[in-house]
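Below is how a single chain appears once it has passed through the pipeline. First comes the sequence as given, then the structure the pipeline wrote out for it. We keep one example in the README because the format questions we get most often are answered faster by looking than by reading.
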Amino acid sequence: MSQHKVVLLLGSNLGDQKKNLQTALDKIKLAGNEIFKVSDFLTSEAVEFASSNIFCNIASIIFTHLSPFQLLTLLKSIEAEMGRTDDSAVTGGHTDRVIDIDIVMFNEIKFISERLKIPHQKHLSEREFSRILLKDFI
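Resulting structure:
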């Protein structure tokens, strides 16, 4: 099995945001993935929905043996385990959340399906906070 280099973006705007982000990273690592690099924390306003809660965000590079869909399944299970009750890809709208974990890049592949888009173009080009976090990661 080969190792895949993956860039993730994580965000939280409910509860202890920094602790939520660290807990998510810990769970990713416990699932057998290597956390290679983590950015500094960056706070930002909510994007694509109105909220009075500020987001705390980080970027991370991980190495994994999982396929893109296996990784997506793992990340969605971590989100659910941590208390995320909705998925914007399913509901079509964004809400406050304990944790959000997005796959931004997976090696150099380009892939589009209903469940997964790699690379995640909104984070690469449309969202200011993402560009700031990713500047040293891609």
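The mean pLDDT is 88.

See the next section for the split statistics.
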